[in-house]
Amino acid sequence: MRIALVNPTWSFENSIDVGCRSPHLPMDLGACKVLLERAGHAVLMLDGALDGLSLADLAERVADFAPTMTVVTTAPTYLFWRCAQPELRVPRAFLDALGTRGGRTVAVGPHGSVTPETTLAKLACDIVVRGECEEMVTRLAGGGLARLDAVPALAFRDGAEIVVTGGPAATGFVDLPALTWPDAWVARHAHHHRFDRAPEGPGAEVEASRGCPYSCTFSAKIDFRDTYRRRALPNILEEVDRLIAQGATYLYFIDEIFLPQRPLLEALATRKVEFGVQTRIDLWKPDMLDLLGAAGCVSIEARVESLTEAGRALLDENCRASTDDLAERLLHARRPVPFVQANLIRVAGDDPALAAAWRDRLRAAGVWANDPVPLYPYPSSPDYRRLRGEPDGEAWERAHAHYLGQFDRFSDIQEERPAPLRELEAACCPA
Ligand code: SF4
To answer: How many Å apart are CA 307 and CA 321, to the nearest integer?
Structure first.
């Protein structure tokens, strides 16, 4: 079968400001591609930013390929499924430009994972995949398109009805083969996830583990990338070596929590590449932090979230370290690693003066600490369920309204005030 995989050309005017907007490799589509090609299918993978194409250009390229199925993602790569833009206007605009020329249209991403019917309606596509998508897309290509009701984790229309075949899928992941990327994409991938100096060569993203053993209340992980899985080391290293051969000098591990893993760090230490990670600093002992630095880590984004033990308990972080321990661990990390950032989240009851003093202490010692940011209560997070109950067809609208309400108090977070979701999605079908 011929299948097109499309990461549309994103734009974020008046949207929320929660993630890095530079282009990244579309890991979700790359994982689909490797499984589809292994099953013998012909795949066209396009990325609006990395290919330098507008939405209309993408639609033309897909139409020329004449696929039986076109898959579009609703978040700009797996890295941002946890902090996606809430609005679906960009994938909808791509699908509108494509019309009927792409065969059956399939949406994958965080939106359809939690609110499949709404996403199907807003995008006016044929099928929504719920949860991690690569194995479900491969099943669709392997005969599933003809028997949608036999494929789990889908939503589709059957006459006037919408059928949902099951809850969100989780990929095996452990044996995910090495992903492959076009040379031109790696060459154009200038962005590095570090902020202490300008990039000196191409960067790329890699995934060594998926999911997280914790369940912080604000974390959008209920419907995807939930259970922690570690990928086979030979597959990771094959992918890493290929990227280095393509010129990458920096890798960013998109793992939601890069846990200490001696064999991986020792293997990276023998390679000429730098890398960045996001993790929880309380899970790293000093000797492993030293190994992390020796392996080539140049950037750590460490979640501290709240500065009080009561605040961390409120966020359900299951963190046993004291606030002083966390500071010590961050300062230790800063010795072998040139850029260390502590991410703080604003929790009701936290003392702004305490946050400012702690931040200043760390900054004086070379550890960057942001001002505490407000939370977006993603429908896939425990916080959403606590605030609003189970997500329904209006879940994204409710989450957005809640966030805008906080924004009135935290207007220093983002230069531009985000617009209401209905305004951002004016071009989408009403839910
Ligand atoms: S540690 Fe908490 S915030 Fe981080 S990925 Fe795990 S559940 Fe989410």
So the answer is: 11
Pocket probe mutation, ligand 1, options 280, 316, 373, max atoms within 8 Å of Cβ: 280
Question: Which ligand 1 atom sits closest to the C-alpha of 219?
Answer: 8
Given the DSSP bridges, would you call strands 104-108 and 127-129 parallel, antiparallel or unpaired?
parallel
Q: Does domain 2-165 have CATH number 3.40.50.280?
A: yes
In the block, which residue shows the tokens 């003093």? 357
Cβ proximity of 296 and 275 under 8 Å:
yes
pLDDT digits (tens, 9 = 90+) for 224-269: 999 999 999 999 999 999 999 999 999 999 999 999 999 999 999 9
CA distance 146 to 422: 35
pLDDT in tens, 157-189: 999 999 999 999 999 999 999 999 999 999 998
Return the domain boundaries, the chain.
2-165, 183-369
Mutate which of 80, 212, 306 for ligand 1? The one with the most ligand atoms within 8 Å of its CB, which is 212
100-153 pLDDT, tens per residue?
999 999 999 999 999 999 999 999 999 999 999 999 999 999 999 999 999 999
**Residue pair 396/421 in contact by the 8 Å Cβ criterion:** yes
For residue 326, the Cα-to-chain-centroid distance in whole angstroms is 26
279 CA → ligand 1 middle, Å: 9
The residues lining ligand 1, judged by C-beta closer than 6 Å to any ligand atom, are 212, 214-216, 219, 221, 256-257, 280, 303
- Model pTM score: 0.93
Report the distance separating Cα 257 and Cα 243, nearest Å.
22
Give yes or no for residue 321 having a pLDDT over 90. Answer: no
CATH superfamily of 183-369: tm_1862 like domain (3.80.30.20)
What is the per-residue pLDDT for 200? 80
**What tokens appear for 426 in the block?**
């004016």
